[in-house]
Amino acid sequence: MNPEAKVPAFPEAAAVAESGPAHSVDRIMAVAYELFSTRGVRDVGVNELIERSGVAKATFYRHFPSKDSLVFAFLEQRDKQWTMNGILSEARRRGSTPQEQLLAIFDVFGEWFLREDFEACSFVRVMLEMGPAHPLGQASIDYLAKIRGHVQAVAEEAGLVRPEEFARSLLILMKGSVIQAVEGDMLAAERARQMAVWLIGHHSG
Amino acid sequence: MNPEAKVPAFPEAAAVAESGPAHSVDRIMAVAYELFSTRGVRDVGVNELIERSGVAKATFYRHFPSKDSLVFAFLEQRDKQWTMNGILSEARRRGSTPQEQLLAIFDVFGEWFLREDFEACSFVRVMLEMGPAHPLGQASIDYLAKIRGHVQAVAEEAGLVRPEEFARSLLILMKGSVIQAVEGDMLAAERARQMAVWLIGHHSG
DNA sequence: ACAGGTGGGAAGACCGGTCTGTCTTCCCCC
DNA sequence: GGGGGAAGACAGACCGGTCTTCCCACCTGT
């Protein structure tokens, strides 16, 4: 048998998913990440997930006991990949001082808002889709609080007074600018950044 | 025949709905307003709507050709009842100057956040639930733009410079504080109000 | 004043489709 | 030969939406 005939449905299915990862769970996660982050979690069904990742339904449910457990895994990956390795580390890289790092968050946001596939913050979206009482809503709230913790840490490095209050105010600006960007205001990040400048000024001793 | 025996299912159905409005369409709207505003539009089905409003399915579809048309009607009522007669008119009533009226928005927000049934801004919620491309998402964006128009009008009364930019920035604060309040930050309105003070200051001449 | 027609509404069966989740069948590869 | 995975049928619930059946209140004609 020639090698081309050996592989019936698996390779092109992998190509559909991500043209890469060999293991089923990786392909499922890659597809879930793309669909959930761009279209939300309620709009994406299990059937579509398994079809797009080229995986059998039984395989899906062997790795994830329920759709919700996949959403939990997605939120965790979103936190690692997008929050940590995406926004926060990039903001820290750009600013030479803690103050500049805080403001750089909105520079990164501004570029993020221009992306084709920009579709709002997944944590805010899941929280509103499922409600704050639902376990998935609670998890989203926890990840948002984690972001606030990091902002607060940078604020402490900057020597700002009342760092927790500062972080809560800055997250209002972050969330508000994201929502406004969904509406189509492409300059939302600039506006929020300007208000962040004033906010930092009033927390500097 | 005694009067009690005359009325078989209609009155208690009205009591279930709102204990008031006689006409079917009013009861449907009352139930839809409560359920949609507290739980979102995707989570509430037609069957639940007709059951809670004590109305037949055929009656529902005689008044509303589809569920989406009811959601459109809900958004319009939300704009009239909540935005106009609720937040904006109350804010205008409280402040004696345009500047105070702008800041009073956040005082009204602060009290709104404390309500039992507070469950986020319906326009933002529908926009994220349906996506900004969906007709219902578009309608939500239009209503948010209408709110911005009113804020801009008050800003012009106040003689603020660049009133449109001001209004867009203030709406970032409004939306951000609402999202943060959903997470449980009960002081989100105060924080946003403080930032609004700085924002007004920088737009005053 | 009363009989009969009429129309709106309640109740709910029903339709096709979709959802999550289970289970069977087959096949390929070790 | 045995196990994992692909394919997909299937179950049970629910979705939005249509349609039938029955009943009751009101209007009309005599």
UniProtKB/TrEMBL annotation, chains A, B:
Domain HTH tetR-type: 22-82
Gene Ontology molecular-function annotations: DNA-binding transcription factor activity; transcription cis-regulatory region binding
InterPro entries cross-referenced by the UniProt entry: Homeodomain-like_sf, HTH-type_TetR-like_transc_reg, HTH_TetR, Tet_transcr_reg_TetR-rel_C_sf
Domain of life, per lineage: Bacteria
Pfam families in the record: TetR_N
DNA-binding region per Swiss-Prot/TrEMBL record: 45-64
Keyword list, A-Z: DNA-binding
Protein's name according to its UniProt entry: AcrR family transcriptional regulator
Organism: Pseudarthrobacter oxydans
